[in-house]
Amino acid sequence: MAEVKVKKEKGVLDPAEVEKRIKELCEQFPQGITDHVIQNDMPHLEPQQRAGAINRLLSLGQLDLLRNSSGLLYRLKDTQGSRALVEKGVRSRDIRFKSNLPLTEINKILKNLESKKLIKAVKSVAVSLNSCRCSRANTLNVLRVLLLLSKIFGSTRLGPGPCLTVEVRVSQVDLSMEDIETILNTLIYDGKVEMTVIVAKEGTAGSVDGQMKLYRGVNSITAPTGLVKTPCGLCPVFDDCHDGGEISPSTCIYLSEWLDF
Amino acid sequence: MTANEVRLCGLLLREHFGEVVEKVGTHLLKNGPETLRTIIHETGMPLDQVKKSLCVLMQQGACTFCSGRKGPGSPAEYCANGDRILRILRYPRYIYTAKTLYGDTGELIIEELLQRGHLTMSETVKTVADRLTQNMEEGRSMDYSEVSSSFSKLVETHFLQRCPPVGVEKKASSSDNPAPPVTNPESAESFPDCYKVPHVTLIGRGKRPLVTEDGEEQRNAKKRKLDAQAHGDEGIYWQVNFERFHLHFRDQTIISAVANKLDQTSSEIVRTMLRMSEVTTAPLAPSTKPLSANEIFRSLPSSYSIQRQILDQYLSLLVDDPMEFVGKAGESGGGMFVVNLHRALANLARATLESVVQERFGSRSARIFRLLLRTRHLEQKQVEDFAMIPAKEAKEMLYTLVSENLVQLQEVPKTPDYAPSRTFYLYTVNQLPTARMLLQNCYKSVGNLIERRLFETKESKRLLEKSQRIEAILASLQASGAEPEQLTEVEEMITAAEKQQLSALRLHVNKLDSAENQVDETIFLLESYIFSTSLTG
């Protein structure tokens, strides 16, 4: 009975608190902690208890076990990955590099987190595989800002010029030049922006190989054409419409609705 | 002519000249040149009616005749001119343009000439003056000389031209040319005098129709006597120069496109350039004659107060613009500039195609469409990547566009067996064929709209006739000084429900009419684009 009591006295901290403390330590030393550090921090902790707590953390996947020249290193695993995620989104390959976990494991963790709605998978904005993924909402923000700026300034310089820094800061995402170019290209295909290439002096901000791309917000040159202002221009059964047929202009329901509108 | 065009021509003829003319007209359009005997035989109509319809068509310039293909002496063949019939669709626009440019007088002159096909100057002036006088207050009237000066102005600006003399053609065919061009009537432009106003002696003022009840006979006799007076221009007939109107429409479209794209000032500069080159540039030239910046500066209306430096900046902006409405032709005289007419038309046609896709399939499909227009051939994967659209949606949109013939699919096999796994599938947009297809769609749409309008009026034919009758009764009662009670009694013959129906009908017809005019604008743009590409080859 007495012995048991003593043991309890010794282990003032219950397992949950031990785990918490270890995590705190790990956060203090992001490069990782050794067994030694834990021993110094909690001298009264029995090796068995310590090992149990660490094992639990490891099994929960919260700690990472690394081998070092000086022995074993414990490091918090997910915090780093999730921090990166919070900042700008990471690719699963980057997580693997940083966390040193096998790919299957990472996929499992990511799926788990995704099901808890803590993270979400997003498509890369860039065509190139080497650029970062960022969320769609952010892409849209960038688009809006770009449009706005181009409307205000008449033309926006692509490159690390003053305009662009503003945009990037607003979007809160570190977009690479390629990403922005891709976004701008879609805007060109939307007919909202047009691009001109001009010759620039080497070393000027935003110039690439002596060229500089200038973007400008534009209005479309024509209003919607006359054809599409009539129901026939938009009719889904246009090709099946014949005089006196099942579908005919005289009995057309689209025309009737349009006329009574 | 395509089936859609023939159908539209038929509808237009029916609307303006009745069903008999429609039958003859569509028959000629479908079967090509035919002799009078064959027409009668194949349509099964009496000689008298066919002759009259041919006369109507000929008067409008919608039909020509020439000596038979079987050599001299063979019966004359008649040939309908479908393009001319389609112009009927654009009459409101011609008349409106004449009104904005030359006021009411110009409007009425063009209207008379369009309605009657061709007229002599003296006849036109008299009719127009009479009509204007009718609308004026009591005691005032329109002077003939005023109307004839408007007429001369219209001729000077080439909006009107002389009809080609009929005799010349005959002479050419009977003389040394044994095989004259059968289907190619010479254009009015080829005669040297086509814009020469003859000396016309016309003194007098417009007359009101006589209010007193003269006998019909008497009035006709009077009229005949009046017409018999010689004015010095007998045999010189005038017609509306559609080409000139089309050039004007084209210029207006370019100007408004520049205004939309850049701003009002630049559009004014382009307007000035177009106006300066109006006379010097050939109608079908791909671009205007070069104009120096100095000339443009001098010709700018002073009210815009554009400074020389600003003009230069605007010009360089216009030249740098990717739409390339304005091009630089040289450096002399402060820079020589031209308006690229054909390229502008191509760009406008492209914008039209884009807007059709945008309105019909949404802006994302339009993005894919524009992407393909700019980059020519792309694989499906590339389309998804460049347009930044998820693969599944992009695929769906692309396939819809392909099924609607707006996007074409090109197979490029690596091996000659066309195995799908070893074949590239490239998507592409061909602007010209797509424009042609849309033009046909436009013809069909207008046909549908006219059909619907005729249907609507036919449905409430009884009602319309009733309201007309009642209006006539009211007018005659008012003229005879009836009591107000009597008038209200007659008015009440139309019930409230009927009134509502009538107003709804009026609304519908107006809506359909304006829609027809709107579609015609698209038709005009696409037609001019297709025509311009046929010139450059």
UniProtKB/TrEMBL annotation, chain A:
Xref: Gene3D superfamilies: Winged helix-like DNA-binding domain superfamily/Winged helix DNA-binding domain (1.10.10.10)
GO biological process, one term: transcription by RNA polymerase III
InterPro entries listed in its UniProt record: RNA_pol_Rpc34 (IPR007832), RNA_pol_Rpc34-like (IPR016049), WH-like_DNA-bd_sf (IPR036388), WH_DNA-bd_sf (IPR036390)
Complex and partners: Component of the RNA polymerase III complex consisting of 17 subunits: a ten-subunit horseshoe-shaped catalytic core composed of POLR3A/RPC1, POLR3B/RPC2, POLR1C/RPAC1, POLR1D/RPAC2, POLR3K/RPC10, POLR2E/RPABC1, POLR2F/RPABC2, POLR2H/RPABC3, POLR2K/RPABC4 and POLR2L/RPABC5; a mobile stalk composed of two subunits POLR3H/RPC8 and CRCP/RPC9, protruding from the core and functioning primarily in transcription initiation; and additional subunits homologous to general transcription factors of the RNA polymerase II machinery, POLR3C/RPC3-POLR3F/RPC6-POLR3G/RPC7 heterotrimer required for transcription initiation and POLR3D/RPC4-POLR3E/RPC5 heterodimer involved in both transcription initiation and termination.
Keywords (A to Z) from UniProt: DNA-directed RNA polymerase, Nucleus, Transcription
Name of the molecule in the record: DNA-directed RNA polymerase III subunit RPC6
Family: Belongs to the eukaryotic RPC34/RPC39 RNA polymerase subunit family.
Organism of origin: Periophthalmus magnuspinnatus
Main location group: nucleus
From TrEMBL, chain B:
Subcellular location field: Nucleus
One record GO biological process: DNA-templated transcription
GO molecular function: single-stranded DNA binding
Segments for region (Disordered): 167-190, 208-228
Domain DNA-directed RNA polymerase III subunit RPC3 winged-helix span(s) in chain numbering: 353-429
Domain RNA polymerase III Rpc82 C -terminal per the UniProt entry, residue ranges: 149-348
GO cellular component, as recorded: RNA polymerase III complex
Entry keyword set: DNA-directed RNA polymerase, Nucleus, Transcription
Main subcellular location of this protein, as a coarse class: nucleus
InterPro entries recorded: POLR3C_WHD, RNA_pol_III_RPC82-rel_HTH, RNA_pol_III_Rpc82_C, RPC3, WH-like_DNA-bd_sf
Domain RNA polymerase III subunit RPC82-related helix-turn-helix: 8-66
Top-level taxon of the source organism: Eukaryota
Quaternary assembly: Component of the RNA polymerase III (Pol III) complex consisting of 17 subunits.
Family to which the UniProt record says this protein belongs: Belongs to the eukaryotic RPC3/POLR3C RNA polymerase subunit family.
Record function comment: DNA-dependent RNA polymerase catalyzes the transcription of DNA into RNA using the four ribonucleoside triphosphates as substrates. Specific core component of RNA polymerase III which synthesizes small RNAs, such as 5S rRNA and tRNAs.
Descriptive protein name: DNA-directed RNA polymerase III subunit RPC3
